[in-house]
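Archive record
______________

***
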Amino acid sequence: MIAHLRGTVATVSLNAVVLDVGGVGHLVLCTPGTIAGLRRGAEAQLATSLVVREDSLTLYGFADEAERDMFELVQTASGVGPKVAQAMLAVMAPDTLRSAIAGEDHAALMAVPGIGRKGAERIVVELKDRVGPITTSASGTVASAPWRDQVLEALQGLGWSAKDAGRAVENVADGPEAAAGDVSGVLRAALRTLSKT
């Protein structure tokens, strides 16, 4: 897999850029938001996902790894291919999309071209336990302590669902271990809350 490309932007079109990497021009399909941040002749780095089909190899490019990871995750839902996944990220930022799936917001998902009621329901059913929780601060912006992702990943690696792991992390987020940024302490505290349920 090609994880990222760094090079000079040779051309920019409505849905793609050509990135010149060591004299080789790579055509990379991108969302409008990603393209808006690129300028012809400027140096750029894109997180990428290579989609292999019988008749083609297609590179999709993203402003950051969070976008790429969400692009790859939503494609694991049946009926969602790379074009629909890219459309989802064109309409919503990764955290907004994660919130829509975790919150079972069918209307938000149906705002994406190519997704109807049944498609939105299927995406929610198949992905809501896999997208991970979204936490918001009082100002409404996404807040993520540095230990949070590590603890969530560890709990899911131990076999708990993303929903249960997220609930456990929320239960211990105000504890002394979290305030100190003690990852192992937070993990132990979260495991204690899970063992009580």
